[in-house]
User: Which sequence fits this backbone?
């Protein structure tokens, strides 16, 4: 184990390689994701039924693409695409906020 240099090399490594990601992550603490924000906006005036459906899946297992739709009370609000089901749903929620809830 390398202990001769004290903590200086460790501090330099953190400052050089991890400072920016740590700052970015700490700024995001407490921020809500698109699905949560969309749900709050849609339910602001009462209960609604929100659902996400994967409507298409393509590509090999190591490089899948998913297409999801978000519906409110049976009406399609938007469609999103992503490399995971979660990302596709998140993109659908983001698109719904941009297109329908401006």
Assistant:
């Amino acid at each position: 184990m390398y202990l001769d240099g004290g903590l200086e090399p460790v501090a330099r490594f953190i400052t050089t390689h991890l400072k920016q990601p740590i700052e970015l992550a700490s700024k995001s603490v407490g921020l809500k994701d698109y699905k949560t924000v969309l749900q709050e906006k849609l339910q602001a005036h009462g209960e609604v039924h929100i659902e996400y459906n994967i409507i298409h899946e393509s590509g090999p297992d190591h490089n899948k693409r998913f297409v999801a739709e978000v519906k409110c009370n049976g009406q399609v609000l938007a469609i999103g695409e992503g490399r995971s089901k979660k990302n596709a749903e998140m993109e659908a929620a983001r698109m719904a906020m941009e297109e329908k809830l401006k």
